[in-house]
């Protein structure tokens, strides 16, 4: 006769929840964790497990509820507070993250991991100088702290301190966020490259590559024979790029070129000692002339004289896209302006918002273009109004006026203050006042469009 084990205890139910989660049985894991919490409402690990399940299922609000409950339990859980601060940052609520980070600091004042969280929260809250000082202190204690170095580099570069920022940015090699290197080639170290064959590797997204292509002529002027491994998606757009001796479109062909060194494209400003953006004009891009007939047909559909291109989201796979992206609905107040014709340049999954919106020619769709065709369309529009993405770099390089709608902690390319770009003469900034709130930004854009219309005699 077997012995009755008796009723399950809270820890038993938690272990069952944990095993269920490990088997990807999320609903069962939630049920067991609920049963655990019924017996022990202060079971921190059960709350944290439920939060992890909700995050996996993309239920951010439910995850926040679980994390706040875990963090409120006495005595305070360092793990729960860490995760709560991180989730607030993920949700675009830096002030909340900062309050939690300061609570952590009071609990463990000498923990460098907590100092890092505190510095990130301060940087996202606009307290850039305080954050930079913490990162510098962390780097003093651990010079190999790549995470702190990268964060510090963004802060320095975002405040136009290039001499400080470029060396810090090189720490990204220690964080594993650099392009795939060619194993048999040494890296160029900035020594005189006269007649040396240097392979330049692309790095980052398409916008990063377009932005950094301006530095290739500087490498060639220093005496190098520049071989550029160009991503296929950009090969048409960058055909007219200056500063390139040999185009390489297939990495398998590299051994035949006899390159002596390699370098990442985004390391060129450091190695070239860039400290004045005005000395490095945007790259020359190719606008597809074969696209003229399609472009003219789209332009002929305009119902208003001021042709405004819009784009509301960058690459959804980019980690910071939730902060920098808007929704199509945020841009629709611009369609209320009777003198404006909107053209959508949106690509990727966010384009579904336009398809499902049923807007007809209120927003004319220009979705199925490659980059060179997009460039040709941009060249024919009066203004581009958009959130941060590669298309902004294309418009900036072409010279079409581009109005970039920026979140409260934008990419350092666009700095943290000012309404004009250091890198693109025709780029103007409209900055958020509050995270993920585009209402005032779009209202200001509408007023600026009225000013353009008045200057052209449209109004």
From TrEMBL:
Taxonomic superkingdom: Bacteria
Keyword Lipoprotein on entry: yes
Keyword Amino-acid biosynthesis: no
SMART domains xref list: TPR
Keyword line: Lipoprotein
Pfam families assigned to the protein according to its UniProt record, in alphabetical order: TPR_16 (PF13432)
Protein name: Putative PEP-CTERM system TPR-repeat lipoprotein
């Amino acid at each position: 006769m077997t012995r009755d084990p008796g009723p399950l205890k809270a820890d038993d139910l938690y272990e069952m929840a944990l095993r269920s989660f490990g088997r990807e049985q999320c609903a069962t894991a939630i049920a067991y964790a609920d049963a655990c919490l019924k017996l022990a409402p202060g079971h921190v690990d059960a709350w944290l497990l439920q939060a992890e399940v909700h995050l996996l299922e993309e239920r951010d609000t439910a995850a926040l509820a679980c994390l706040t409950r875990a963090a409120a339990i006495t005595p305070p859980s360092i793990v729960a507070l860490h995760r709560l601060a991180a989730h607030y940052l993920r949700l675009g609520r830096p002030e909340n993250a900062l309050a939690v980070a300061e609570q952590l600091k009071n609990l463990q004042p000498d923990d460098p991991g907590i100092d890092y969280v505190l510095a990130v929260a301060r940087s996202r809250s606009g307290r850039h100088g305080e954050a930079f000082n913490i990162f510098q202190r962390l780097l003093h204690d651990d010079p190999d702290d790549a995470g702190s170095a990268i964060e510090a580099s963004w802060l320095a570069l975002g405040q136009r301190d290039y001499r400080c920022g470029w060396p810090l940015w090189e720490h990204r090699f220690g964080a594993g966020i650099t392009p795939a290197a060619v194993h048999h080639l040494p890296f160029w170290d900035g020594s005189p490259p006269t007649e040396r064959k240097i392979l330049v590797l692309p790095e980052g997204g398409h916008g990063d590559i377009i932005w950094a292509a301006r530095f290739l002529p500087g490498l060639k002027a220093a005496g190098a024979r520049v071989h550029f491994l160009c991503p296929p998606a950009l090969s048409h757009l960058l055909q007219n790029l200056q500063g390139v001796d040999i185009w390489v479109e297939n990495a398998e062909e590299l051994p035949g070129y006899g390159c002596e060194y390699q370098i990442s494209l985004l390391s060129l400003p450091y190695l070239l000692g860039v400290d004045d953006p005005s000395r490095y004009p945007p790259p020359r891009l190719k606008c597809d002339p074969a696209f003229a007939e399609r472009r003219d047909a789209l332009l002929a559909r305009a119902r208003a004289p001021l042709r405004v291109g819009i784009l509301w989201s960058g690459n959804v796979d980019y980690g910071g896209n939730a902060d920098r992206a808007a929704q199509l609905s945020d841009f629709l107040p611009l369609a209320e302006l009777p003198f404006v014709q909107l053209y959508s340049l949106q690509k990727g999954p966010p384009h579904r918002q336009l398809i499902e919106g049923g807007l007809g020619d209120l927003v004319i769709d220009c979705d199925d273009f490659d980059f060179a065709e997009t460039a040709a369309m941009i060249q024919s529009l009066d203004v581009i109004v958009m959130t941060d993405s590669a298309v902004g770099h294309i418009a900036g390089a072409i010279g079409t006026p581009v109005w970039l709608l920026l979140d409260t902690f934008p990419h350092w390319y666009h700095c943290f203050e000012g309404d004009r770009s250091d890198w693109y003469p025709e780029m103007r900034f409209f900055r958020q006042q509050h995270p993920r709130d585009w209402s005032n930004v779009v209202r200001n854009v509408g007023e600026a469009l009225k000013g353009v219309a008045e200057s052209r005699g449209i109004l």
